[in-house]
Amino acid sequence: MRTFNGLDELKTAVGEHLGTSEWHEITQKMVDQFADATGDHQWIHVDPERAKSGPFGTTIAHGYLTLSLAPMLSSEIWTIEGITMAVNYGSNKVRFTQPVPVGSRVRGSIVLDSVDESPKGAQVAMTLTVEIEGQERPACVAQTLSVIVP
């Protein structure tokens, strides 16, 4: 866990790899709950029997489920003290480069891209790479944006 004491200290780390999270298993229960929450019940996600004969040989996580792990993965990698709050502001380029089979494990890796002052504090851009254990290509690469209020 990398801890920063305020925005000035965070700024000194621009361009650095901040760290890597723990591994997390993607379960069918997680995928089913995400399907229920979003209304995306496509069989490649929620029908293990049918998915056995599908293109991936098993059910796979939704791409947006993979992306939605960003706050959890980030919280295992870095934190900032001495602030009022931090809120998600959005994402820039997001790519789902490989499916995440149910039962596989993923982890996040973060590079701090920029810290830009704003009237409300700072806009922070980070590149999150979600890796799949045992795979060369990542599942997802996204530049996430946050606003940090001192």
TrEMBL record:
Gene3D superfamilies: Hotdog Thioesterase (3.10.129.10)
Any matching Pfam family: MaoC_dehydratas
Top-rank lineage group of the source organism: Bacteria
Annotated family: Belongs to the enoyl-CoA hydratase/isomerase family.
Listed name of the protein: Dehydratase
Species name: Dermacoccus nishinomiyaensis
